[in-house]
């Protein structure tokens, strides 16, 4: 599928004079790397959601903030839409380029500018990889907590734009909780600092507002992150279940017992088998579901928590409970989980990764609902997700070469998100709305709420040039879609209606 994304439902973006734009970029910034022809543009046609792709009009790769400012000023003056891109690992089409716009690639901003172990913070450029921050902090016994499974590749700028999460966010928070300050360049070319090195600052909390704004409000050019001391010890308990709903209930039981694990993840049988075939993590391939529960902190607390978790899991009906014997086994257990997406990619020609969040108590019912939908649509669904914070990642397996399968997968995905909203959850937990879930926003938000989002957007970007057509749908689009804050009839699962 190739979606030409220049057309917004409520109007068409102005045509851009490409020749004029390229000439003015060359004239204003002679050293700037500008790609605007044929094969050069191919690698930038999509992000991690490869079902959507568009050839950008031009790709620019600046390496100084001044260059970004000049590019933005030019684009503003010539009404050229701008899509920022970090590492392109996004899973919701957020960095999908425009046929009539430039793709501003921030990959060359890859330096750690300052690492202050005493203040426990680091000042980094936006193109720095998430994992590279923890690697640089490691000699000081520190690390950067949010750890998306894509951390080896994704950039901190992209993490800020998506408010990225990861395995350890249940205990340590999302990106927004782990940054102090970001510097942005606005579409008018102004450099602004949002947040500060103090824990709180007067005025509106623009840092929180900006985090997760998916490139719609400005371009991140610098990030100051918090660093945490590495826990003295960490242990992982793996529990097997013969029934996925029991595993879902056990998640709530652990939290209800007053334990906040460093990570609490669930995998169903399909993803267990795929990950085991790929990584040989030592997973029980006959289990219907496993929970991986990490406990970290000081030795004595971790020891006591492991015992308590074991008791809770036994009571919840776990068929087998194993504590990773040593650090190597702990790493193997996590490697299986962190590689579960590519592992599922090996057992199906294509897969579509959903990202809904639900209240923990709704887990068993929603898992049952997904199973039922999977049967209805005759498409396999693998569940592997951040169970502790209710952030689900159903992976819908399909074959894009089979006529109609992609459309069926998309429809099934939308139904799963409806289910999440229905039980009081949200259409995204960490992958963002991007292009992919823009229609689902019409289901989750009322017109008045969307109007408020548009007012915020206008305050930063009056002309609507930054990443148009992503994240926040126009009211017109919602009316066309026909899904304006309506629930899609009665749920097929009456037991969920009490949530
Ligand atoms: C295998 C796999 C596993 C993943 N696991 C997780 C996970 O556990 N948790 C999670 O949260 N995500 C996960 N993701 C999704 C993705 O890695 C994150 O959303 C990540 O934050 C994207 O970073 P990026 O640098 O690749 O951004 P991109 O994909 O390049 O861009 C993402 C969005 O950010 C905007 N953007 C990028 N850079 C800037 C900037 N400098 N200024 C302003 N806007 C910018 C773009 O316009 C776009 O809207 C996973 C992806 C894959 C492929």
From TrEMBL:
Which GO terms of the molecular function aspect are on file?
Answer: (S)-2-hydroxy-acid oxidase activity; FAD binding
Identify the PROSITE patterns for this entry.
Answer: FAD_PCMH
What InterPro entries does the annotation carry? FAD-bd_oxidored_4_C (IPR004113), FAD-bd_PCMH (IPR016166), FAD-bd_PCMH-like_sf (IPR036318), FAD-bd_PCMH_sub1 (IPR016167), FAD-bd_PCMH_sub2 (IPR016169), FAD-linked_Oxase-like_C (IPR016164), FAD-linked_OxidoTrans_Type4 (IPR051914), GlcD (IPR004490)
Question: GO cellular component annotations, sorted alphabetically?
Answer: glycolate oxidase complex
What is the residue range of the signal peptide feature?
Answer: none
**Chloroplast: present as a keyword of the record?**
no
Write down what this protein is called: Glycolate oxidase
């Amino acid at each position: 599928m190739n979606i030409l994304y220049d057309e917004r439902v409520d109007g068409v973006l102005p045509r851009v004079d490409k020749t004029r734009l390229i000439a003015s970029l060359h004239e204003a910034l002679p050293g700037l790397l500008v790609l605007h022809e044929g094969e050069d543009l191919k690698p930038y046609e999509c992000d991690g959601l490869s079902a959507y792709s568009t050839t950008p009009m031009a790709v620019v790769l600046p390496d100084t903030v001044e260059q970004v400012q000049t590019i933005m000023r030019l684009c503003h003056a010539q009404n050229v839409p701008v899509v920022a891109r970090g590492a392109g690992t996004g899973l919701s089409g957020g960095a999908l380029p425009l046929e009539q716009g430039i793709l501003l690639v921030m990959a060359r901003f890859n330096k750690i500018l300052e690492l202050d172990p005493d203040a426990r913070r680091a000042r980094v450029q936006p193109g720095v990889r998430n994992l590279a921050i923890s690697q640089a902090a490691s000699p000081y016994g520190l690390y950067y907590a949010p750890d998306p499974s894509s951390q080896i590749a994704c950039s901190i700028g992209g993490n800020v734009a998506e408010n990225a999460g990861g395995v350890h966010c249940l205990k340590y928070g999302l990106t927004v909780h782990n940054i102090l300050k970001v510097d942005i360049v606005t579409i008018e070319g102004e450099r602004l600092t949002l947040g500060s090195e103090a824990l709180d600052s007067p005025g509106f909390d623009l840092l929180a507002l900006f985090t997760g704004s998916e490139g719609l409000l400005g371009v991140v050019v610098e990030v100051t992150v918090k660093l945490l001391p590495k826990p003295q010890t960490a242990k992982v308990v793996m529990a097997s279940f013969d029934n996925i709903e029991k595993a879902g209930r056990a998640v709530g039981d652990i939290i209800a017992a007053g334990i906040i694990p460093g990570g609490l993840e669930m995998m169903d049988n399909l993803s267990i088998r795929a990950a085991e075939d790929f990584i040989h993590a030592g997973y029980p391939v006959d289990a219907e579901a496993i929970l991986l529960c990490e406990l970290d902190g000081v030795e004595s607390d971790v020891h006591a928590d492991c015992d308590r978790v074991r008791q809770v899991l036994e009571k919840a009906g776990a068929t087998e409970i194993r504590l990773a014997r040593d650090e190597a086994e702990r790493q193997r257990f996590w490697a299986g989980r962190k590689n579960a997406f590519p592992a599922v990619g090996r057992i199906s020609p294509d897969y579509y990764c959903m990202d809904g969040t639900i209240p923990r108590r709704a887990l068993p019912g929603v898992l049952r609902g997904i199973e039922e939908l999977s049967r209805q649509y005759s498409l396999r669904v693998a569940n592997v997700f951040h169970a502790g914070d209710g952030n689900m990642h159903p992976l819908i397996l399909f074959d894009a070469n089979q006529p109609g399968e992609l459309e069926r997968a998309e429809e099934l995905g939308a139904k799963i998100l409806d289910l999440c909203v229905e039980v009081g959850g949200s259409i995204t937990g960490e992958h963002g709305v991007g292009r992919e879930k823009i229609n689902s926003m019409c289901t989750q938000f009322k017109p008045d709420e969307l109007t408020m989002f548009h007012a915020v957007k206008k305050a930063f970007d009056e002309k609507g040039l930054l990443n148009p057509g992503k994240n926040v749908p126009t009211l017109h689009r919602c009316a066309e879609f026909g899904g304006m804050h309506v629930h899609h009839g009665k749920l097929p699962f009456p037991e969920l209606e009490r949530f």
